[in-house]
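Lesson 9: reading folded outputs for more than one chain in a single document. The general rule is that every protein is listed as its sequence immediately followed by its structure tokens, and records are never interleaved. Here is the first one.
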Amino acid sequence: MAQETQNHTLSVSGWAAYDSSGEIKPYTFKRRENGVNDVTIEVLYCGICHTDLHYAKNEWGITMYPVVPGHEITGVVIKVGCNAGKFKIGARVGVGCLAASCLKCELCADSQENYCDQMQFTYNGIFWDGSITYGGYSNVIVADYRYVVRIPENLPMDSVAPLLFVGVTVFSPLKDNGMLGSPGKKMGVVGLGGLGHVAVKFGKAFGHHVTVLSTFPSKETEAKGRLGADDFIVSTNSQQMQAGKRSLDFILDTVSAQHSLGPILELLKVDGTLVTVGAPDKPLELPSFPLIFGKRSVKGSMTGGMRDTQEMMDLCGKHNITCDVEVIAPDTINEAMDRLAKNDVRYRFVIDIAGKISNI
């Protein structure tokens, strides 16, 4: 394992955390030269994910410093390898969580690279050449073309950036559980944050009746008035929860704080499904009775594979779906990280890597 190898001669400017303080500072480093399967991308925008904060502060104990975060990347292609002809110079593209996988296993063959045992992330991973991967908090990234997607021309590059992670993370379980192409179902979304607000947009675009569950009554106006949700349930209100029993076909739980799934499961119809995409640092409470007496299922899901990511992006282009973002300049990343830790963002921060706040 090495931070750089002999082929890493492309000088890149970026921003990195050097230690567990999590402070992000300027960092100049080397990337690999464009290979036969690569595209070199000028990074225009990069979303800030809560995962970035975890890695910057080494809260999961696996950070390899210095770490350059960022896995919600949009930009334009400036160089193309001979095997990457599906992309042309000037193409609008995106890079999400995935940098590499084995490309040989059953999962890779089925475009479920995200579940491959040898999958490596866009940052803090180990690429095929043994180098540590660096993410999108940088002005240039070199990516294998098989992990790059096209961005529809009608979507702004800033507010589309978080779709590379949050978008496909909520899209894949919707697709996997029959919520795509079968309108008219009743869908619940637990939590109205970065993931949840996109889930509401998808649910409405796909023709479903969407109910938002939140512990914050103040979010009802946002959920219904601006995002178009049909109903709103305060999950701490026992009367509202009782009134909603056995009313939903499918629930997507986006909450990353510890909570009990029992009351939420009671909202599902018989044979309904709950999928959790949040990642609490403590185990979720899962009582057996709501499962047994409702023949209900609980599943997990992570970010999607490349086929799902491109399909999601194309559908976003068709329905004009983007994330609600606050665009910042690189010199305010630390302030944004501090606000993110306090959940003071609606709903995603996006870094204008060029330092110029504008839509492209």
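And here is the second record, again sequence then tokens.
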Amino acid sequence: MGFWLSPMIAFLANFTVALLFLLSCTYFNSTDAYDALDPHGNITIKWDIMSWTPDGYVAVVTMYNFQQYRHIQAPGWSLGWTWAKKEIIWSMNGGQATEQGDCSGFKNSFPHCCKRNPTIVDLLPGTPYNQQIANCCKGGVLNSWVQDPAHAAGSFQLSVGRTGTSNKTVRVPKNFTLQAPGPGYTCGLVKIVKPSKFFTADKRRVTQALMTWSVTCTYSQFLAKKTPTCCVSLSSFYNDTIVPCPTCSCGCQSDMAKPGSCVEANSPHLASVVSGSGNNSYLPLVQCTSHMCPVRVHWHIKLNYKEYWRVKITVTNFNHGMNYTDWNLVFQHPNFNNMAQIFSFNYKSLNPYGAINDTAMLWGIKFYNDLLMQAGPLGNVQSEILLRKDASFTFEKGWAFPRRVYFNGDNCVMPPPDAYPWLPNASSRKIWNCFRIISILLFVLIPLF
């Protein structure tokens, strides 16, 4: 009996391990878009049916960027979906479909779009007023919720035909996609929610939509880019060592051999290469460096006072193809709970863990340094912050350097902790510890020989 029982127990044990592994894989795949510093961040799309037409309805679609520090920059968002039946778009205001599709079946008047899976983009600033609606025409740019909540939403209006004309017959679209401007966002299922309510201009009357649908889209850096987009370098006043970004932080191993994968800073053909690439492209044209990142963030421990310490932060743009408009930084460090003063940047505490204040968001001052210029002499911004020392303050073991750094919502590559600048006494103590270990080994091994 025991002979047959042992193989059965072994089989059940292996089966259980395999099942747990598969479940864990499924679990982690579903949390790819989770961001610990912005756990509730998302882009919510609301589809409000405002009135019925002879063969459909008129709806206002609004996108709300509820992400604290991640924004949508130029060339802007594009929103797509698949119709449930054979719907068409008769007309649009505040946005437009990128393709009209096959409208050959219409004789008298042609719809704006006949595609079963249309893609909509925002209109540009300066669009004629008769083509606008409220909160439109920003070129697809949506600011982050913390940085500029007044410009964190965008809207467009569309008249839909060949659909139902009541709440019971109309069908919701499906398979929503959001490009902002590249990949990275995953949209969930469409949900029917309580109708949105709107205040009139005098705030004395409330109207509501006939029907409202809602879609939530979340961001994953892994889906957006195969390699990181930024890295961090470190330095301090107490050590001459400048810790650079790790080599090939942004995936240069396979690209360095390809001609045109990067641009030499002193190249005589630099101007022609940059002009031919197209400005404000989300595909980087980077300067040739050891790290091959479009952006480098440098943290320098500058001064030490009796009750304070001072840090200088420098952001350098190595991307010849893009100006970073309304850029932002997020730092995680335990001493941000005692922020004293910041110079030439805006600052806000994020508090992702409730009472623990260890995360700070920094961004440029409007019309001063909110534009991070393309690679070159002007392609950097910098500021200094003054922090009050708390009870746990120390320069030892890299405590004064940030734990995590984000640029424009993407996590930057940090140097390995053993490469951080050490205090002079810490390095000597390290050498002394090694000497002690070697001495003990010699003391033990010499008698054996």
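What the second record shows: DSSP finds four helices and 26 strands in the chain.
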